[in-house]
Amino acid sequence: MKELEGQVRTCQLCRLAKTRTKAVPGEGDVRAEVMFIGEGPGYHEDKQGRPFVGAAGQFLNELLGIAGLSRESVYIANVVKCRPPQNRDPMPDEIAACAPYLARQMALINPRIIVTLGRYSMAQFFPGERISQIHGTARMVDGRMCVAMYHPAAGLHQASLADVIRSDFRKLPIFVEQARLMTRPPIEVAAEQVAEAEEAREAVVYEPETSAVLEESAAYKAEIPTPPVEVQAVAAPESEVAPAPASRRKKASEKGAEYKQLSFFDT
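Structure (tokenized):
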């Protein structure tokens, strides 16, 4: 997880890297049963590099207490790891560029329950649904229980929603007990989700049609020549060599040096 957090803090894969103060990987118990996923960092989160530390974070602390939880016992992350300017909604290519980070966090933590906070987080697990219709409800997604909740900020902007959100969080202990009776998804499922997220990321980061996501960093890389590196290959015993799937070998060969940004996930 520390290595993944380092990748997030130095990421240059989308335009949000140009306007952020600090990236916000996430924080909490890396063996948590419950993982909360918000939408993206706000002003205070961008300054501190931590999730949910502003007014919405204070309300989330209250909600966690209602559910019998604490920040130390859960893991908190976001769909995008850098603050969109003026807290605008994250764009699809920005979400796609960040998706492998979130998928990798889910794979490392393997929580029993994922709680989505807000509609952009909800859309990752409940596509096509409306938060006003499914808030406070749970369903199985890829073998894991997922619960849709309003974003805590909604309760600050609409006083009428604050009590609704509190009521939804009172149901969370029931969902946790139900999830404890279920088997967590196998690691193969998590690996597939990471691979799918990486493939979707490539579609926006490396394809010419959507190259605007890296328009500045692409120009930056073009100005800096890459020094040649001599590598002496050492053959491993045949029994220890696991061939990569054909589709992955093809993608890596097509991307060449540009693919280095994703090498952490392959490893």
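The mean pLDDT is 83. DSSP finds 13 helices and six strands in the chain.
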